[in-house]
Amino acid sequence: xxxxxxxxPRVRSFPDRAAMGAAAAADxxxxxxxxxxxxxxxxxxxxxxxxxxxxxxxxxxxxxIDWTRVTAFHMDEYLGLAPDDPARxxxxxxxxxxxRVPFGQVHRIDPDAGVATYGKLLAEAxxxxxxxxxxxxxxxxxxxxxxxxxxxxxxxxxxxLDRTCRRQQVDDGAFPSFEDVPTHAVTxxxxxxxxxxxxxxxxxxASKRHAVDRALHAPISAADPATALRTHPxxxxxxxxxxxxxxDIQ
Length: 250
Prior knowledge:
This protein has a single domain (10-238), classed as Rossmann fold, CATH 3.40.50.1360. The strands form 2 sheets. It has a 7-stranded parallel sheet, with helices on both faces. By secondary structure, the protein is α/β, with parallel strands linked by helices. α7 links the parallel β9 and β10 (235-239). Helix content is 28%, strand content 18%. Keywords: Carbohydrate metabolism.
């Protein structure tokens, strides 16, 4: 198990999803501007999920970001879908952000290229920023409780998706039925995600409240993968009224 760093993620709760997304985007944009003022380029990883839509919609219009100096990655991808399938995460991110701002480079996961290829791209330089969420079962990327490893020696791997994770994809509207959801995917591992300098975790909706509560309060273990966020020194968690287990709303 990773050693826990004292302290908790910064938790910011908002009265609604729109306010949450706007605040998260403002913070991510400020981090990008600060990094670009100090270094030649920035590398960042994006989650692909409806929970991230509000953040990304605001981020693409944020002023003062030289996107040509930003390299983008994404954190997971289904196996077995056609390259043009709209449910593929690379295609979702193309619609959400990858084609909406002029990134210097975009590295999309190609399931046919093998996980080692993507791992090498990630390892070429440090990752500065990760924009991610938490799944209903507490997963980070596609590191579900049955396959999550907080000390995973790999950077990228193929995993089997658990039933709760697959059901969430139907609930999110990505697939018409449970049977249509792929059973396997490529995912960045938990240590790979936590190796980034800053994490911005956006988690709206009532269906995520239990997972958020576990992430903040359950023992740190692979049984609740999102608890690993508490081992990173610089995580901000953005919640709306429905997902927040706390009563105080900013």
